[in-house]
Amino acid sequence: MSGDSVSRRGFLKLCASTGALVASSPSLLARTPAERSHNTPARLLHNSGRPLRLEDLVVGENYVFHYPYVSTPCFLLNLGKPALPREGLEMDDGRKYNWRGGIGPDRSIVAFSAICAHRMSYPTPSVSFINYRHEQMTYTDQEFKLAHREQVIYCCSEGSVYDPAEGCRVLGGPAPQPLAAVDLGLDEATGEIRALGMYGGDMFERFFEKFAFQLELQHQVRDIRAPVGPDTEVLPLGTYSLNTNVC
User: Fold this and answer.
1) Which domain holds residue 26?
2) Is 113 in the same domain as 127?
3) For 243, phi and psi rounded to 5 degrees?
4) What does the angle CA 78 – CA 197 – CA 134 come to, to the nearest 5 degrees?
5) Are residues 80 and 150 in the same domain?
6) What is the total count of domains within the chain?
7) Interatomic CA distance for residues 62 and 103, integer angstroms
8) Integer Cα distance of 11 and 14 in angstroms
9) With contact defined as beta carbons under 8 Å apart, do 46 and 54 qualify?
10) Other CB atoms within 10 A of residue 188 CB
C-alpha cells in the first residue's frame, strides 16, 4: 500500500514538474510534433564550412542540403514572406499532419524534401528536374485549368506543383501528397539553423529501392542510408546541379 502511495506521489510530482517546464519553455512542446521522424539533429553549414545563418539565405534562391541521410536531398528556401502554419495536410496513405510554418523573424525560412512525391524526381549533380520558381509561372492546376502563380516548387517530370508557403501542399499535377517537411530549429542568439527532424510522407525507403545504384555512384558511398552526421553542407542549387532550368 505504501509503495502504491509513493508511486502515485512520484507520478504527480513528475507531471507537475513537466508541466512547469513546458509552461516556462512552450517551444519544447511545440518543437516535438508526434508525427516527426528521423529525429537526429544536424547543423546546416555554409559552403565555406562555417555555420549557416539566416542572413546567408537570399530571397528566391534555391538551396540544397542532404538530410537526414547522405543521399536524400532537401530544399532550403527564403520565401521573403511569412509562411504560417497549416493544419490538415494529408499523406498518400490518408494520415493527416499539421505543418509548423517557417522560422526566423519573418517566418520566411522553410525546408522540404527535394524528392518529388510522384515519380521521386530529385536534384542530382548533373541535372535537377525539380526546383523552386520564385517568379510567376503558368501551370495546370488540379482541375486541369491553366493557373498563374509565383513562389512554387515545380517538377518538370510530370508537372507536379507545390506551395512551399503552405506546407508544400499540391497545387497541380499527379503528386499524391505534399513534399515531406524538414523541422527546422533556429538559435536566435547566433542566427544559426539546424535540421531537427522530418515529418509528413518522406518515401525514403521507396526512394532507396528505386535509385540505389545511382545514389551510390552520385555520392560515392556504399551506405546510402547513412545519416548525414552532425553537420550538413548547404549549396545553391545552381552550384550543386549543372543544369537546373530544364522546362
Assistant:
1) 1-30
2) yes
3) -130, 120
4) 20
5) yes
6) 2
7) 17
8) 5
9) no
10) 10
Whether 230 and 117 map to the same domain: the answer is: yes
Residues 161 and 209 in one domain: yes
* Per-residue pLDDT reduced to its tens digit, 137-196: 999 998 999 999 999 999 998 899 999 999 999 999 999 999 999 999 999 999 999 999
Question: What's the grid cell of residue 49?
Answer: 564550412
Residue 84 lies in a domain: yes
Which residues share a beta bridge with 182? 198
Instruction: Look up residue 11 and give its three cell numbers.
Output: 507520478
Does residue 51 lie within any of the structural domains? yes
Model pTM score: 0.85
Low-confidence winner among 9-13, 31-35, 161-165, 231-235 (lowest mean pLDDT): 9-13
Cis check for the bond before 68: say yes or no (omega within 30 of 0): yes
DSSP β-ladder status, 42-45 and 231-233: parallel
78: cell is 527564403
CA–CA separation, 135 and 133 (whole Å): 6
Residues 83 and 48 in one domain: yes
